[in-house]
TrEMBL record, chain A:
Localization (cell): Cell membrane
Name of the molecule in the record: NADH-quinone oxidoreductase subunit J
Gene3D superfamilies the UniProt entry points to: NADH-ubiquinone/plastoquinone oxidoreductase chain 6, subunit NuoJ
Catalytic activity: a quinone + NADH + 5 H(+)(in) = a quinol + NAD(+) + 4 H(+)(out)
Topology relative to the membrane: Multi-pass membrane protein
Species: Rhodohalobacter sulfatireducens
Role: NDH-1 shuttles electrons from NADH, via FMN and iron-sulfur (Fe-S) centers, to quinones in the respiratory chain. Couples the redox reaction to proton translocation (for every two electrons transferred, four hydrogen ions are translocated across the cytoplasmic membrane), and thus conserves the redox energy in a proton gradient.
Stored InterPro entries: NADH_UbQ/plastoQ_OxRdtase_su6 (IPR001457), Nuo/plastoQ_OxRdtase_6_NuoJ (IPR042106)
Keyword field: Cell membrane, Membrane, NAD, Oxidoreductase, Quinone, Transmembrane, Transmembrane helix
Regions that span the bilayer: 6-25, 32-53, 59-77, 89-111, 139-161
UniProt KW Signal keyword: no
UniProtKB/TrEMBL annotation, chain B:
Membrane-crossing segments per the record: 6-24, 33-51, 85-105, 117-133, 139-159, 180-205, 254-274, 280-301, 308-334, 385-407, 427-450, 471-490, 530-553, 659-677
Gene3D superfamilies linked to this entry: 1.20.5.2700
Species classification: Bacteria, Pseudomonadati, Balneolota, Balneolia, Balneolales
Membrane topology annotation: Multi-pass membrane protein
Residue ranges occupied by any NADH:quinone oxidoreductase/Mrp antiporter transmembrane domain in the UniProt entry: 135-426
Gene that this polypeptide is encoded by: nuoL
Organism for this UniProt entry: Rhodohalobacter sulfatireducens
Entry protein name: NADH-quinone oxidoreductase subunit L
TrEMBL record, chain C:
Keywords: Cell membrane, Membrane, NAD, Oxidoreductase, Quinone, Translocase, Transmembrane, Transmembrane helix, Transport, Ubiquinone
Top-level taxon of the source organism: Bacteria
Segments crossing the lipid bilayer: 14-33, 40-59, 71-92
UniProt xrefs under Pfam families: Oxidored_q2
Family matches, as Gene3D superfamilies: 1.10.287.3510
Function noted in UniProt: NDH-1 shuttles electrons from NADH, via FMN and iron-sulfur (Fe-S) centers, to quinones in the respiratory chain. The immediate electron acceptor for the enzyme in this species is believed to be ubiquinone. Couples the redox reaction to proton translocation (for every two electrons transferred, four hydrogen ions are translocated across the cytoplasmic membrane), and thus conserves the redox energy in a proton gradient.
Family stated for the protein in its record: Belongs to the complex I subunit 4L family.
UniProt keyword annotation of Translocase present: yes
GO molecular function: oxidoreductase activity
Subunit structure: NDH-1 is composed of 14 different subunits. Subunits NuoA, H, J, K, L, M, N constitute the membrane sector of the complex.
Name listed for the protein in its UniProt record: NADH-quinone oxidoreductase subunit K
Subcellular location per the Swiss-Prot or TrEMBL entry: Cell membrane; Membrane
Amino acid sequence: MEFTAILFYVFAILTIGSASIMVFSKNIVHSAFALMFTLIGVAAIYVLLYADFLAATQLLVYVGGILILILFGVMLTSQESAKLNFKTVTVNVVPASILSVTALVLLTYVFTTTQWASRNLETPQETVEILGTMLMSDYLLPFIIAGVLLLIAIIGSILMATRLNSKPTESN
Amino acid sequence: MFTTIPIIILLLPLLGFVLMIFFGKKLPRQGDWLSSGLISISLLLSIYLLINKVSSHSEEMISHSFTWVLIGSGSIEIGIAIDNLAAVMLVVVTLVSTLVHFFSMGYMKDDVRYSRYYAYLGLFSFSMLGIVITNNLLLMYAAWELVGISSYLLIGHWYEKKSASNAANKAFIVNRIGDFGMFIGIMILFFSYSTFTFEAIFSSINSGQLPFGSEQWLTAAGILIFCGAVGKSAQFPLHVWLPDAMEGPTPVSALIHAATMVAAGVYLVARVFPMLTSDALLVIAYIGAITSLIAATIAITQFDIKKVLAYSTISQLGYMIMALGVGAFTAGFMHLVTHAAFKAGLFLGAGSVIYAMHESLHKAKDHHTDAQDVRNMGGLKSKMPITYITFLVFTLAISGIPFTSGFLSKDEILAGTLAFSTMNGHWILPVIGFAVAAMTALYMFRLLILTFHGKPADESIISGIKESPKVMTVPLMVLAALSLFVFYSFNPLGAASGWFYAAIEQPMSVVPELIQPASAHVFHEAVENIHGMAMIISILMAGAGVLLAFAMYQWKKVNADKLAEHAGVLYKGAFNKWYFDEFYSKAFVGGTIILTKILRWFDENIIDGIVNGSAHITKIISSISGWIDNNVVDGLVNATANTADRAGGLLSKIQTGKVQVYLVYVVFSFLVLFILFL
Amino acid sequence: MEPSFLQWLADPGLSHFLILSAILFSLGIMAVLSKRNVIMVLMGVELILNSANINFIAFSRFTDLSLDGHMIGLFVIIVAAAEAAVALAIVLNAYKRFKTINLDDISMLKG
């Protein structure tokens, strides 16, 4: 067994284990922290796949940004009649389990039986410079559109949040 | 170079029209200088073109054409063609038009629609020039109709007057009758030769191709096209519109109804002359002769100064048509040119007199006296010397007194008719010709004497009369000069040696040998033999007419009223214009009314019966189908709706409103699809 | 155990990563379908997105997709960030309106 194989299994187990905790935990705060470990594990998997830039981005954006956002969401919405309630309730457990297991079986079957067109593994190299060049040449238009998308998302979230504060209670 | 000049000549008046109709009111002096300037440039270019064309002594045409429309395998070519005929005509049109533009500055001063008047003059000039320079029947027809519409607009210039708008309608409608015939003629030619251009049609005929393979059809096509000329040139039986058209402003009468538009018919006949068969030409000659006789008799009896001139115009147009009919091609066309000058002059002179009368009446606050009735005039000689002298020159010219242009052309026409009768015995044509010559002299001098000589009918009005302004008298002087013989031939007694005869040659006939008119050569020889005699008779007739006029109206040796009484029916008939209007009104208008009554009866009783019957049947059928609708179709529809309602009620149970349940459906469906496509 | 299976297990290749992503995917599906809390559903969605990203990058490592796979992964992360921001704003709005973030109680679409 090679060193990379060991590393792969370590991080795979970390990822899957924390993801399972996230899904099956009854406490939403626990779930959020388990998600953090899952994301870190995925970042490590990226490193094993020689995607150094993406691994860094994963850490920065997911762990540093999205996860914090989710935690804020948890904190802001978990009030129920003046006290905190972090319990999560499950629904549809039987159909959901059946469907997810079916999906897992089907996907695994497809992934293992398909003959993927493989190629000779070349010597890995740093991807940052190449990705930068590509972003400024072939992917310039998607890059700009992505920027615009983010801008719109920012404006939209701010707008919704502001409305939220200016019109606090709308009777329903 | 020479292909662009005619196009510039053509388009300048159109430019004037467009500018005047949109911006005329805003320009200083309402833009009369603009229109007049543009038409003057056209005139100068036309003169330049004519001099170049004639001095080059070549019969070569300036022509240019291009394909306009492609129809199937054929195509329609349009373009321009300028031969000597067209070049002369260009100068005539632009010259008279220019003079009328300047004359109108005085005559139409203070008119309410001054700028629009000039715009319409521009439109008219453009369309008339279009007729002249085109090389095909299609464009000529289009320009022909444009001339009709601009004539309509100008006759109806004072449309507040009921009589003016009626006259405009009449002119347009009567013209349409002739144009209809012309259109059929053009279509016969197009159907046979798939082309509109003159040259192509002529060469096809020359090569022995006949419409529908028969000579009668060729004759018919010629006569049908001549119908257009009958309308525009006010020939019998469509001459009734021209006297009424005098409701328009007098300069317009001079331009359109004396010099150019009415001459368009003559020009048309001259254009298609090569394809006219001898039969068609005979019809044309007789139509012309009848017209000239009828109009001349009417002219003697009229008292309205413009009406007299109008009938005189019809008579002279009849002359030209007759000349073309008998084969005196050059003489007929020359008469067109000389007549354009002196008849335009006569109208402008009449305009000058009417203008002066109006001013005087206006000053005297007299609104009842007719400013155009010669019985209210008299003794104007001393008051309006320039108008009088020029009017005298024009009168001499139209009467055919030697040393005038009118003598040259009229003499040639009369010689032509005489030669024609010696060749094939149609002696009635020269008889009518000479009689009309005498009558022309009689009525023209009658008009002159009644207007300018003698004692004033009403001293108070006549004393207030002043000579018209320079802008009106100068055009008169120019036209008077052009009514002298020198401009057409240096020999005052014979036109045949002048440049005009050299420039305008009779075109070769292209119709088959058997139905060909006498060739130019044969005809000329006949004319040569008879010319001296014709000249003497012509001078004698004119002299007789003049003498009779003086005897009746100046010296009062012969009592005109008594003579009229003796003539009895003849006088009454002529005075009432031979009842043409009444006849048309009874026969066509009345006939149409009777026809409509019959049609109405037919409508109300038979067609309405059928319609009502079918409506009744429809009603029965519809009530049956209504029952079926209500019971069978509606039942089916309602059953469908109920089924859909129940199914919807069942399906709506699935819609729990819970997002995750929907998601379960989605994932489930996705997995099913996944398995299916695996 | 067959030796070939052990051998396969010892040398992590493309299919190992793919199976990892499949497990993450089904866990995400489980979270999305079964959790009543909106934020848990969002976390499930993030899980699914991550599993997809692992696929892209694995393919870009082992097949001809090359760096284009990285590119797509990058854009997925960008879109996920935007999605998370907007989704949380929506959640906050819904919370203000319905006084709850339980998806079962937000059932205005009921037919």
